[in-house]
Structures are given as structure tokens and as C-alpha cells.
Specification:
binds inosinic acid, alpha/beta, 179 residues, single chain, 10 strands, 4-stranded antiparallel beta sheet
Length: 179
């Protein structure tokens, strides 16, 4: 299936599964090398990162733990705007090496809020592993340790990412071709 229709939009394959897995292999090898002996805690941010997390974790060969969190959006004060609160975090992060596993960093605002909230739990170190980065959209200063792929600004779906809840199930990544 090279072209799919989701609601009002058409999408075409832009990154096939084989290419994705090649980059996941590379990121996993970097993490295996960098974090050996640190018993990292991987924090997978649902829903979008479920497929990346599964493929990444199958390739991690060092002792580690994995947990899943969600970000719940709510309207903050006038000055804070929309706030995303971490829910489902049951682990003690104090003194731990934490690796956030995300699907995509777009403006980076979500990641910034997540980092700020995790800092309150006093981890020793927090690293970021993201499947995708849209570098031209980044609005905040972020150090991203592991990036599987950089992509242009276009909207994408598949491999965990959705359009209005749909499209997460596809094994390839698709880019929007028509509105
Ligand atoms: P940020 O706060 O702007 O970095 O947005 C991050 C979140 O926006 C991601 O976790 C995704 O849920 C969503 N997102 C950003 N770009 C896309 C896209 O192209 N397709 C699907 N979801 C996206």
C-alpha cells in the first residue's frame, strides 16, 4: 500500500519499514554502547511511541527496565497556556539514568515540559531517544541524544503516529500528499 486515505487526507509512503529499522538498529547500538552498566530506565511516552519502543527494546542488550507514561493535556493559567502533565509514572527516578522514548519532536514544547517534570524526581541523568525530529520546527533549546531520523516539516502518520487517532498501525511512515 503506497498511498492511503485517512479521513480527508491522502498519504504516501515516505520512509519504508526497512529504512526505519536500519536507523533503530543504529540508535540501539549507540545506547548499548553508551549506557552499559547504568541499568537505564526507559520511559516510553504513549501512545505514539509504542511501535518504536517495541522495535528499539528488542535490540537493547544491556540490563535495563522499561516503563510507560502518558501526557495528559489540560488548560493551565493564562501565562502557562496548555500544560501537559505526566501520568502513570510509578517508578522512583532518584539517582537513575532515564531514557525518554518519544515518537517525534516537533516544536519541542512537549519534550521541554516532560523534562521539567522529570527533573523534580531527581534522576541522575535524563537522555532523549526520538524516532523523528523536525529540526526546522524546533522552538526550544533541547539536547537530543538519539535521533533515528530527521524529517521535513510535513505531517506524517504510521509506525505509531496518528492523524486524528487513525494510522498508528501502519508499518511504514507516510507523508501527507493532499489536503
Ligand atoms: P511538539 O510539542 O510540538 O514537539 O509535539 C510533539 C507531539 O506532536 C508528538 O508527540 C506527536 O504526538 C505530535 N506530532 C507532531 N508532528 C506530528 C506529525 O507529523 N504526525 C503526527 N503527530 C505529530
Amino acid at each position: 500500500m503506497n498511498v492511503i486515505q485517512i479521513k480527508d487526507k491522502q498519504f504516501a509512503v515516505s520512509i519504508p519499514e526497512a529504512r526505519i529499522l536500519q536507523e533503530v538498529d543504529r540508535v540501539a547500538a549507540e545506547i548499548n554502547r553508551d549506557l552499559a552498566g547504568k541499568n537505564p530506565l526507559f520511559l516510553s511516552v504513549l501512545n505514539g511511541s509504542f511501535m518504536f519502543t517495541a522495535d528499539l527494546m528488542k535490540r537493547i542488550e544491556i540490563p535495563c527496565e522499561i516503563s510507560f507514561v502518558k501526557l495528559a493535556s489540560y488548560q493551565g493559567t493564562a501565562s502557562t497556556g496548555r500544560v501537559k502533565e505526566v501520568i502513570g509514572l510509578n517508578e522512583d527516578l532518584a539517582g537513575r539514568t532515564v531514557v525518554i522514548v518519544e515518537d517525534i519532536v516537533d516544536t519541542g514544547l512537549t519534550m521541554r515540559q516532560l523534562l521539567d517534570q522529570l527533573a523534580a524526581h531527581r534522576p541522575q541523568e535524563v537522555r532523549i531517544a526520538t524516532l523523528l525530529l523536525k529540526p526546522d520546527k524546533l522552538q526550544v533549546d533541547l539536547h537530543i541524544d538519539y535521533v533515528a531520523m530527521q524529517i521535513p516539516n510535513d505531517f506524517i502518520v504510521g509506525y505509531g503516529l496518528d492523524y486524528d487517532g487513525l494510522g498508528r498501525n501502519y508499518k511504514d511512515i507516510y507523508t501527507v500528499v493532499s489536503d
